Amino acid sequence: MPMPEDERRELGELETQLSRQPCLVKLARRLSSASADTGLRRTSVLWGAGGAVGLSLVAAGAVAHRTAAGTAGVVILIVTLLAAGVAVFVIAVRGQRREGRSAHDRRFHPP
Fold first, then answer.
1. What is the mean pLDDT of the chain?
2. Is the separation of the CB atoms in 11 and 108 below 8 Å?
């Protein structure tokens, strides 16, 4: 459904007024640069580091026949897996909320 000409003109005027506000322009740029990919990258790095530590402890425990080292490795692996799962879930929920909010904000509401 195309937008009527007067609404399009009003929207253009609003965009011009908002672009003159430096703090809003800065905030818009900051929000547009933030993405879920950044959070997922950080989560995968932490998950990889925790997994590496956990696997090395499990391997060291198996080689040295130390139950404590193997158990510590398994605990670290489980905690890392749970933390990464929760982080990915939180990132997904935030992304859905942000998409829903931005779609709602994009609708034109007359004054």
1. 76
2. yes
pTM across the whole model = 0.50
Is residue 82 helix, strand or coil?
A: helix
Backbone angles phi, psi at 76, to 5 degrees: -65, -40
Check pLDDT > 70 for residue 61. Answer: yes
The tokens describing 42, both together, are 């950080």
Q: How far apart are CA 2 and CA 7, in angstroms?
A: 10
Q: Please, how many CA atoms are within 13 Å of residue 67, restricted to the half-sphere of its CB?
A: 0
What is the distance of C-alpha 64 from the center of its chain?
40
CA 44 to CA 68: how far, in whole Å?
Answer: 27
| Identity of the amino acid at 3 | M
